[in-house]
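[Discussion] Sanity-checking designs against the backbone

I'm trying to build intuition for which residues belong where. Below is a structure token string of 51 positions. I'd appreciate it if someone posts a full sequence so I can compare it with mine line by line.
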């Protein structure tokens, strides 16, 4: 059980880092097309961590 929990947290953190990296590489125009601002990147990436 504990190992499953730890592995799920590791995978969640990996999703968070991937999302954060992907959005930070976009320019402001592309972010606007997606519907977020540069200030919202952390919030959107954090949602990936919580899932």
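Best answer:
Here's mine. Compare freely.
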């Amino acid at each position: 059980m504990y190992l499953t929990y730890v592995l799920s947290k590791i995978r969640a953190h990996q999703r968070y880092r991937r999302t954060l990296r992907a959005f930070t590489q976009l320019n402001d125009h592309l972010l606007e097309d997606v519907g977020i601002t540069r200030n919202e990147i952390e919030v959107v990436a954090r949602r990936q961590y919580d899932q």
